[in-house]
Every structure is written in structure tokens, then in C-alpha cells.
Amino acid sequence: MGIQGYSAAERLERLPISGYHRIIFIIIALAFFFDSMDLAMMTFLLGSIKTEFGLSTAQAGLLASSSFFGMVVGASLSGMLADRFGRKPVFQWSIVLWGIASYLCSTAQTVEMLTLFRILLGIGMGMEFPIAQSMLSELIPAKGRGRYIALMDGFWPLGFVAAGVLSYFLLPLIGWRDIFLVLAVPAVFVLAIRFFIPESPRWLEQAGKHDAADKVLLGIERKVRESLGRADLPEPVALPRVETVPGTFFSAFQQLWSAQYRQRTMMIWSVWFFALLGFYGLTSWLSALLQQSGFAVTQSVYYTVIISLGGIPGFLMAAWLVERWGRKPVCVVTLLGGGVMAFLYGQSAVFGGNVGLLITSGLLMQFFLFGMWAVLYTYTPELYPTSARATGSGFASAVGRVGSLLGPLVTGLVFPITGQGGVFALGALCFAVAALVVWVFGMETKGKTLEELTQI
């Protein structure tokens, strides 16, 4: 309980969105950006790596999937660690781990060593993504929470485009190994997190560390006042009180399957699995499939970057709509739109590879799919209480990473049989299934505080 009997949530929710909140957002979003850039790079380097090591499409698919295997492990562990020991330390160590692993990728002399290092990289990235969601959702008031988390996810397509630009200019000059070396440098960004990002007061209070929570809250309130240039802040408004749930390392996981949260868990796990199965089955192979269709390496990278630009207006539109339409309808629309455009993209490549049609359908596909990402990252942490939020986000992400792991592998196996049209039709079917699950079983979370959502 905080000053004058107010809880951490009541003190945080009454704060106006300020420059201080935006600084927190920028730091967390940049960490997210560097992570996504590292993960997306395989899309652009896979063709060159496949050629150097003489890999079959199935072997290349296994390599592309390796980081997702690590992400399953990282996402599963990080949520429980963050709910038990705090958000901030787990967030920091995740960045250190992927920085070291990216450096190791640059030293790989065999495909087996590269696969191992990509798994380590995946563990670090898998740890970071759900913690970024949880931290931002707990620090930003409800009136701006959806918009800011959706915008954070927008740093994913920016990272994807940056990875493409970097590979387009550097791949012919320095090769894929030195590109991985360059990607290890942003790990020093952990210093900014150490000094500028506070631990979540909601988590501290839930963990019984009331003095520490009060100290962090006083610091946040002071910085918000300084940012706004005024001495007073609005009075807190009473919110539902959530009972503290002290427990063991596994108690948060057990909470996901309690009567209150079981349907939410089954719904969001299904959505993450099918959405990521479709997404990574397609995007991990965009550049390599274009090369298979007859485009040169630099051409395929160039067109993949152009197509990825569609994700930028996609996440911006989703960030605007989640606070107007709500999470559920935006999720359904983006999944269905992505499925339709994925199917058309596959067919455009089949019928002569018309570049104009290919780019147009590809742009629209990425518009909807990156909008989908923005909604998923907004929606998932809102479904769970503070005591299980990181675990819920982590396991949803982990189940999604199983889909990510299977996606490129399935694509590598299916492509020789059905061709590119069949691959993209399969991806479209995955998005349709995910949309149906949200429509039938999803709940709306727009405009409600995290504490109010625990009472539904």
C-alpha cells in the first residue's frame, strides 16, 4: 500500500501521459527494435548462408527455425523468472545474452555451430519480448497503454526494414558473418535500461516489497511533475484491489490455468501459435523464395525490404484503432486481411512473377500482418494479473515460437511439393484459424485498467 493508503496502480493510473512516459517507451522500444533486427536478419542472409554451406531447402528451413527453438525456451523461462524476481533484471540479462550470441554467430565456421549460436540468440530474444510487453503495460496508464504497446511493436517492422537495408548495403561488401558482428554492438544498450528504466511498482507491491514500490513511485511522480512543469498531480481514483499472491516459481503458471484465466490462456495460446506459424512460414523465406523464382540475391533483398515497408503504416493504423475499435475487432480484421493478401501474394508469384502485382500484394500483406503483431503485443499482457502477467505473456510467446519454429521448417518441406502458391495458401489458412479463435473466444480489454480486467 502506498502513500495515504493508495495502491501502486491507483498512483500510476492517475498520472497524465508525460515526456517521462515517452522516454521509458523509447528505451524499451529501442531494445525491442535491436532484437527484432537481429531476428529478422536471417530472412535476408538465409539465401547466402544456404549457398555457402550447400544446404538443401529442408536444411535451410531447420537453420531458419533454430532461433525460434531458442525463443521457446527463453520465453517460457523469462516470464516465470520475471514474475518471481522482477522485470528489470531479466530484461537486462536477455539483452546481454543476445548480444553475446550475435557475436558468436559471426565466428561460426560450420552450419552446426551457426545453428547452436542461433539457438542461444533465440533464448535471449525470447526472454526479452514478453518482458518488454509486461514492463510497458504496467508503467503506462490505461488511457495510453494500448497505443504505446502497439507503437512499441511497430519497432518490429522498423527493425525488419533496417535489417534489410543493412544487408542490402553490407552483404556484398563484408559477408554475412561480419553483419552478425555489427548486430552484437547494440547490446551495450543495456546500460540505458539499467539507469533509466525503473522496476515495475505493480510487481514490487505484489511481491510484498511495499517500501521499494513507494520509493520507485515517488521517483516516477517526481519525474512526471518535472516533465509536465507543474507541482501538482491529479488525485488517485479507487481501483479494484487485487489480492497479493505469494507463491513458488511455478505458482504463476498454475494461475494461468485457474478457472478465471483458463479460457483466456487457451484462446491466446491458439492465436499466437497459428498466427506465428503462418507469419514465419512466409517471412523467413520471402527473400529465399524470390531467389528461387529467378531474382538475383540483391534484387530479392531489395524487393523484400520494399514489401516490408507496408508494415509501418500497418502498425500505425493498428495503434490508432486499438483505442477506438478495441483489441478484438482489430485483431480479427488484421488476421483476415493478412490471410487474403498472403494468398494473393503466393498466386502473383506463381503466375509469371509480375513484379508490380508481387510488390502490391506483398505491401498489403505486411500492412495487415504487422498490424496483427501490434494487437497481439497489446492484447496479451492485458489478459493476466500482475502476479502472472509476465508468465502469461512469456508462455503465449513460447507457444507462438513453436509455430515460428515449425513455420520455416514446414515451408522448406512443402515448397518442393506445392510450390510458392501452396506455401502462401497454407499461411493464409493459419491466419484464418487464428481470426476465428479470437472472434469466438476473445474478450475486449479496451479502456480498462489492468486491475479491472482481473475482475472480469
Question: What is the succession of H and E elements?
Answer: HHHHHHHHHHHHHHHHHHH
What would you report as the Rg, rounded to the nearest angstrom?
21 Å
CATH homologous superfamily classification:
MFS general substrate transporter like domains
Mean of all residue-level pLDDT scores: 84
Low-confidence stretches: none
Largest sheet: none
How many domains make up the 3D coordinates? 1
Total count of strands: 0
CATH topology: Growth Hormone, Chain: A
Strand-residue fraction? under 5%
Q: From the structure provided, what is the oligomeric state, counting identical versus distinct chains?
A: single chain
Given the C-alpha coordinates, what overall shape results? globular
What percentage of residues falls in helices of 4 or more residues?
A: over 70%
CATH class (first level) name? Mainly Alpha
Count the helices. How many? 19
The CATH architecture would be: Up-down Bundle
Class computed from helices, strands and strand pairing: mainly alpha
N-to-C terminal Cα separation, in Å? 23 Å
Keywords: Membrane, Transmembrane, Transmembrane helix, Transport
Membrane topology: Multi-pass membrane protein
InterPro entries: MFS_dom, MFS_sugar_transport-like, MFS_trans_sf, Sugar_transporter_CS
Subcellular location: Membrane
Describe the structure.
- The protein is an all-alpha fold and 456 residues long.
- The protein has a single domain, classed as Growth Hormone, Chain: A (Up-down Bundle).
- The protein has 19 helices and no strands.
- The chain is globular.
Secondary structure topology:
Blueprint: H1 8-13, H2 19-53, H3 57-85, H4 87-107, H5 111-139, H6 142-153, H7 155-184, H8 190-196, H9 201-206, H10 210-228, H11 251-256, H12 262-283, H13 286-292, H14 297-308, H15 311-321, H16 327-350, H17 355-382, H18 389-441, H19 450-453
